[in-house]
Amino acid sequence: MRVLVLGSGGREHALARALRRDPAVTDLHCGPGNPGTAAVATNHQIDPTDPSAVVELAGRLRVDLVVVGPEAVLVAGVGDALRAAGIACFGPDAEAARIEGSKAFAKDVMRSAGVPTADARVCDSTSDAEAALDAYGPPYVVKDDGLAAGKGVVVTSDRAAALAHAAACDRVVVEEYLDGPEVSLFALCDGVSAVPLLPAQDFKRALDGDEGPNTGGMGAYTPLPWAPDGLVDEVMATVVRPTLDELRSRGTPYVGVLYAGLALTSAGVRVVEFNARFGDPETQVVLDRLATPLGGLLQACALGVLNPSTALEWTPGAAVTVVVSAEGYPAAPVKGDVIAGLAEADAVAGAYVLHAGTTVNDENLLVANGGRVLNVVGTGADVAAARAAAYAALGKLKMRGGHYRTDIAAQAVG
User: ATP-grasp domain location, by residue (predicted)?
Assistant: First the structure.
C-alpha cells in the first residue's frame, strides 16, 4: 500500500511512524512533512490546503490512500477533490468537516441526534453575547464559531474578558459551563460504522496547574486509570453512532476520525466539542499503544468497508507525551532557535522525540519553526513509568526559550 500523509506537525510524525510499522505500507510519503517525518517517509514540499496540488501529487505518486492530518486541509475541501479524482481519502469532505469547522453546526447536529452536550446559544452580535453570558452565568464559556487551531475557546469568570473574546470573533457560541474532567475519544469511521481507539486526556493550558492561556495542547497520556468502566461503550452508543447516523441522514456520510472531546460531569457524559481529525497531542500517545496495523484500518474506513466488530489490539502499558513549545507560545512564538540534544533524548530507555514545529536552517541546524516544537513521548508499564521516561528525555533537550509543563499526567499517578 502506498500512503500519503498530509500535514507537518507532531500528529503527522506520529501517524507516519505508526504507518511505517504496518508491513502492508510499502511506500510512505508526507506533504509537506517535517525533519522528523523525513526519517520514515519521503517529504514533498506542497501546500496541503491546495486541493489541486494534493490531487496532482497523489496521482503522480500513485498512492492508494491519502491520510489527512490538519483540520484546515479538510475544511479546504481536499477530501472532496481526492474522492472526485478516484483517490481514497481518510478524512471527511468539507461539509462533514463542519462538525469541527463550525461550533454552531456541531450543536445543530447534536441537537438533532439527541447527543448530550452543554446548552448553548449562537451569538452574532455583542448584545446577543451579553444576553447569553447573563443567562448562563460564570464561569463563562465563549467559543469562536470557526477554526482557531485549538485556541478559540475562552473559559473565564471575568465577564469583560468573555465579552472581549466574543467581540473579537465574527460569530461565537456561548454555552453553559461543564464541570468534571475532560476525556478525548477518537473513533475511526467509514460513513456507517465506527471503531473506537483508546481514550486519552490532554492538557490545554500553557502553564502548570492548568493556568495560562489555552493552547493547541501541551501534553497527553493514555490509558486513563481513573476512567469509569464502560465509558467507551457509552460514548459510542450515545455520541458517536447517533452523530454518524445524523450526518449520513443529511447526505454527508462521515469518513475519517470523529474526535469527541468529552466532559465527565456530575450529570453524566457531555460532548464539549467535536473535531474532524486526529487530536494533537493525544494521537502521539494513542498510536504509540496501537498494535493493530494502522494502514489497513484507515484504508478500510476510506473504502467504506470497516468491520464494526473489529477488535483492536493494544500494547500493554502506558504512554505520556510532553510538548516543548517555543518562547512566546501561544501568543507570539519565536522561530529560529536551535534545538540540541535529540540523540541524547532518543537514547533514554522508553522514550523518543517527535518533531512538531521544526525545520533545518541555512547552516543545516535543526531549529524551531512553530509554536509547539517537539513532542517527547515516554512509555512504560504504567503511567508513572511512562511519565518518568518522558521527563528524563526532556532533560536532555536544549533550546533557548523552550518551555514545557512539568505536571503532565501527574495527578494520574497520585
Answer: 107-303
